[in-house]
Amino acid sequence: MDQYLSEWFEQNTDRVYQLMRELWEHPELSLQEYHGCQVMKEFAQQEGFTHIETHAAQDWDNPQATPNTLIASWGSGKPVIAIVGELDALPNLGQKDVPHQEQIPGPGHGCGHNTMAGGAAAAAAAVRYAMEKEDLPGTIRLIQTPGEEIGRGKSYLGKHGAFSDVDMCLMWHPAPGPLDFSPVPQQVAIRVLFEFHGVTAHAAGAPWNGRSALDAVQLMNIGCEFLREHSKKETWMHYNIVNGGAAPNVVPDYASVQYMFRCGDDYDTAVALFERGIECAKGAAIMTGTTMEYHVDSVVPQFYYNLPLCKYVTEEAAKVPPLTYSEEDYQQVEELYRQVNGKEPPADREELLPTTYLPYREDRGDPANGNCTDAADMTYFCPTLHCQGLARPKQCPGHHWSATFCAGTGAGMKAAVYAYKVLAQAAVDAYQDPSVVQACWDAFHAMNIPPHKCWLE
Q1: Helix, strand, or coil (residue 44)
Q2: pLDDT at 456
Q3: CA-CA distance, 10 to 198, in Å (whole number)?
Q4: b/e 100-118 (16+ beta carbons within 10 angstroms → b)
Q5: What is the pLDDT of residue 363?
Q6: Among 135, 344, 388, 408, which is least packed, fewest CB within 10 Å?
Q7: Sign of CA dihedral 156, 159, 162, 163
Q8: In sequence order, what DSSP letters do the residues of 140-182 get, joined into one string?
Q9: In the prediction, which pLDDT does 369 show?
Q10: Does 79 sit behind a cis peptide bond, omega within 30 degrees of 0 on the bond before it?
C-alpha cells in the first residue's frame, strides 16, 4: 500500500470510525441530510480541501436552501478523480446497537450509507495527503450525495454538472458476501405517482352522482396485474396506494397510487413497461369517468460498467492489507445471524462474515439478483466504479434492522475503511500512471453512451 495512504489511515482511522458513528446516531431521510452535510463540510475543511461547495440538490442555486450535498476539491488540473459517498438513511429502521431487534423510532442507516460517507471522506483525505507528499498532478474530489434511497440525488447532481469534468468516479456499497469490483446486475427503475380526480358523493344516498377516484386506482392495479403476463422476463411492477379516500361512506374524488417499473439492466424495456402502465391508467380513468395525471418521482437509468476500471481496481486490491475483525465483532455477528435466520451461524467465519474480494470477471450473473442505485447516473458522465460487498453477514438483508446494527458497529465500519483504502490506492496509482485513465476513457467512448437525462425537471 502507498506509504502515505498507510500513514494517513494509521493516524486517523479511529477518527473515521467516530465520523461514521456520528452519522449513524443522526440518521436523516433523503434530501434532508442537513446534519450529515455540515459534518462532512467540517471534515473537509479540517483535511485541507481548498474548494468546498454545498448545495441543496433539489434547489441547487438557492442560497437560502439548507444544503444536503457536499463537493470538496483539492489540487488542480487533470485527472479529476472523485471519491463518492452517500448520506441518507431509511424510514422506520432506527435500531439500537445490539444484535437483536430493538427499534428506535425514526430513520436508521439500514443501507449503511453512514459507512459509505465516512469511508469516502477518509479515502479522499488520505489521497489528498498522499498527493501533497508525493507532488502528484491532478485533482481529488470528495462528493457526498443525498437522496439515493429515493433514486434522485445523483440525477440532480448530474443535471447541475457535478460530474461533468470528472475523469473517474469511485465508490463502494455494503452488501452480504465478499467484496466484488466486477460488474453485477443493476436494475433500471422508474418511480411514478399516478393521481386520479373524480367527483365526491354520498356513498349510500347518491352514489350515482359520484365518480370514484379510488375505483380508478383499483382498476389501474387490476390492469397492471393482467399486464404481467405480457411483460418481458426480468421486469417487475410494484405499487402501493398512497391515498384511497377519507371514509368508506364517501365516494372519494381523489386517490393516488405510486408505482415502480423495473427491469434488469435494460432502460428501453423499463420505459416500454412504464408506457404500458400509463395506458392502464388512462383506461381506468375512462372507465370511471375520472381524470388522471402522473408525475415521475425518480428514474434510475441503465448502469454502464467500465470494464478496464473494474479490472484495474481488482488488481489494486492486492496492494492493501487484508480486512480483519475482532473476536467481539464475530460474536456480535453470530448472534445477529441467529436472530435474523433462526438457526446457528456457519462454523466457517469466512462464510459468515467475508473478509476477502472476488477475482475479476465480466459475467454479470442473474439479473433477478440485481441491485438498483442512482450511481448509474454517474456512468453517463465518466468511467465509474460502484463496487459492493462486505460489512454484513451472509443471509442478512439490506434495508433491515440488522443492516442498521452492522452499520453502527465494527462489522460495517471496518469493512468500509478497508474498501475505501482500496479505492484510495487505485486513485493514487491512477494519478501516477496516465494510461489507466486513458484506457478507462477509451472503453467509455466505445460504449456510445447516450446523453444523460434528468427526469426531475
Answers
A1: helix
A2: 72
A3: 64
A4: eeeebeebbbbbbbbbbbb
A5: 83
A6: 135
A7: positive
A8: EEEEEE--GGGT-HHHHHHHTTTTTT-SEEEEEEEEESSBB-S
A9: 65
A10: yes
Q: Which residues pair with 77 in a beta bridge?
A: none
Q: What is the identity of the amino acid at 89?
A: A
Q: Which residues of the chain have pLDDT under 50?
A: none
Closest by Cα among 179, 168, 160, 164 to 140: 168
Residue 352: its pLDDT value, please? 96
Return the C-alpha torsion angle 330, 185, 88, 332, nearest 10. -10
The answer to whether 56 and 66 are in contact (CB under 8 A) is yes
Grid coordinates in use for 432? 501516477
The reported pLDDT for the residue numbered 116 is 98
List strand residue ranges (DSSP E) for 327-409, in order.
384-392
Residue 96 has φ and ψ, to the nearest 5°, of -70, 160
> What is d(CA 272, CA 261) in angstroms, rounded to the nearest whole number?
10
Q: How many CB atoms lie within 10 A of CB 276?
A: 17
Q: What is the pLDDT of residue 196?
A: 98
Residue with cell 424495456: 269
Alpha-carbon distances, residue 308 vs 22, 138, 420, 448, 451 (angstroms):
36, 20, 19, 16, 21
pTM higher than 0.70, yes or no?
yes
Cell of 261: 417499473
Cell of residue 256, nine digits: 393516488
